[in-house]
Amino acid sequence: MTDIAWIEAALTAARPQAMGALLRYFRDLDTAEEAFQEACLRALGHWPRNGPPRDPAAWLIFVGRNAALDAVRRHSRHEALPDEEALSDLDDAEAALAERLDGEHYRDDVLRLMFICCHPDLPATQQVALALRIVCGLTVKQIARAFLVGDSAMEQRITRAKARVTAAAVPFEAPGAVERAERLAAVATMIYLIFNEGYSAGPDTGGARAPLCDEAIRLARLLLRLFPAEPEIMGLAALMLLQHARTPARFDAGGSAVLLEEQDRTLWDRRMIAEGLALIDKAVRHRRRGPYQIQAAIAALHARAVRAEDTDWAQIDRLYAALETVQPSPVVTLNRAVAVAKVRGPAAALDLIEPLAPRLSGYFYFHGAKGAFLLQLGRAGEARAAFDRAIALAHTAAEAAHIRQHLDRLIADACPKDVP
Amino acid sequence: MLYAILCYDSEDVVGSWSKEEDAAVMAKLAVVEDKLSHEGRLGPVARLLPTTAATTIRKGAEPLVLDGPFAETKEQLLGFFIVDCADLDEAIDTAKDLARASSSAGSYEIRPLAVFKPGSAAP
Description:
The structure holds 2 protein chains of 2 kinds.
Chain A: H1 3-26, H2 29-50, H3 56-75, H4 93-102, H5 105-115, H6 124-134, H7 140-146, H8 151-168, H9 177-199, H10 203-226, H11 231-244, H12 270-284, H13 291-304, H14 313-326, H15 330-344, H16 346-353, H17 357-360, H18 364-376, H19 380-393, H20 397-414
Helix pairs in contact in A: 1-2, 1-3, 1-5, 2-3, 3-4, 5-9, 6-8, 6-9, 7-8, 7-10, 9-10, 9-11, 10-11, 11-12, 11-13, 12-13, 13-14, 14-15, 15-16, 15-18, 16-18, 18-19, 19-20
Chain B: E1 2-9, H1 11-16, H2 19-38, E2 42-47, E3 55-58, E4 64-67, E5 76-84, H3 88-101, E6 107-112
Helix pairs in contact in B: 2-3
């Protein structure tokens, strides 16, 4: 890697910590961002000449704070701060400095930075856009591309979201234990939202959105390093890794979605799977189960099955049943039905999902699954109606293309075969 | 003499590499590995999963299981190479080759091996 690429990676990596600390100093998002930008500019000037600092985050916090205070200092007699030229590059001076400045604040800084993006008034997509901008440092252009909107529309959306969270005034004192746990839960949800924005994109928009999955995983790892003994954060990281590992196999060359059972498992990313399995193993030891851990455990059973037919569906059924009790939702029941169809047959699965119809009538996957169960039961006409409904509700071309295959097969079966 | 060349780097930084950047570094390291292997000097090589996947057992009357790595450090142990080197000079040269292949800000620590058991675990 070239030096410039290393510096860019280092700036990206240091961003949440540095932004979090600068936000605590200045208590204002815009000032913190300007200070961070200025520090990054100076880093690009200094680091190639002087070598990279041992602790890039500490360097950026210090220099960013200096830069932002410069203007103020010109007008008043503030305590002089050492110039960044004086910061040695090879010893741990800036680390000691950072410790003095920040001590135990680091993890609450990062958590606060992520938490302000989770304001309940903000719609989910705005939370995600704000987090991508502020925490991950993606450019407005990159974010706009991921959301398929114009740059200026995204710029406006982010500005509005910022104004909203500024008005909400998240307190800057170190949070208490209960508050910290609440923040962690909100942040975990937001990280999973980022992931799903990336994961739910078809291959058509996948190019622009794929980095969202990587960003979400990076944030989860960061959070886990700050809170190493939180089983739900382990579960969240594991879940995303195990799902993202399947990405190379999720779409065929034509861009249609490939069902889990039909995916070429040799394409799955083994390193992500290893990390996901290690994390879920660690999480389970805590014996404090939660929705992310249960979902990760389900994903782990898929990851562990070398062939689709090796999948432990009975265990997956039990895990979904557990998930239904922790997090009751018709979508969970719908997912469970897939396992039930494997273990007890399509009739049992159909019985399980029939009561969901009023709540899921507008949901693509409900009609897709219903069609598949009906097809297995040989009820072709009803299956076809369900698939038609699913296509009408598909969000991506890949979803539609997948159902189309079912329909084409149905139509082919219904027609008299050509005589060779 | 066998030396362990331990690779330390900031996990945050290595974790922000894109897939392509990561692959490029691995490819450059593989060139050095191939050369060592050709000379019959390369022992086991390992890349470790992130420290978030680590568990630490603190020894005591009742060993304590802790989540996370043994020590919180600015740079983390990311992996290692076992290499046969005539002397420290050669080990330093080898580590420099590796360092040039992965020009980030981390370090390579050279530690002569006291005991070496190649083991029987299949990869």
